[in-house]
Amino acid sequence: DMLDPERLIQCPLIKHHWIRARRFPYHLVKCKESNPEIAKKLATCPFNARHLVPQADLSDHIMKCNDKAFVEQDVVSRSFESPQEQLNNGSTWQAPPSAEDWET
């Protein structure tokens, strides 16, 4: 199951590293820091930062990446909204009223 946090994933930098899915993002950061020579030969997928591929293969990966569908679906669904609806779908946070008077 792809959503199982306990499944093992192979590290794209060091092939004998097998990491639980729930720890994978943390491992990538540490492994990239520990192996900068290997890391600089890899490119990060624009659709999923967990996808590290050889730089020469990035364009091919982008064309085939399964996560691209999620981004495209979001772009298409947003294109049907009016600009006002897009603005309204943003943050609704407002600062709470304040009794402070900085002038006094």
From TrEMBL:
Keywords assigned: Metal-binding, Zinc, Zinc-finger
GO terms of molecular function: zinc ion binding
Biased composition (Polar residues): 80-95
InterPro entries, per the entry: TRM13/UPF0224_CHHC_Znf_dom (IPR022776), UPF0224_FAM112_RNA_Proc (IPR051591), Znf_C2H2_sf (IPR036236)
Domain CHHC U11-48K-type stretches: 8-35, 42-69
Pfam family, one: zf-U11-48K
Ranges for region Disordered: 80-104
Keyword Oxidoreductase: no
Name the UniProt record assigns to this protein: GTSF1 factor
Organism of derivation: Loxia curvirostra
The gene coding this protein: Gtsf1
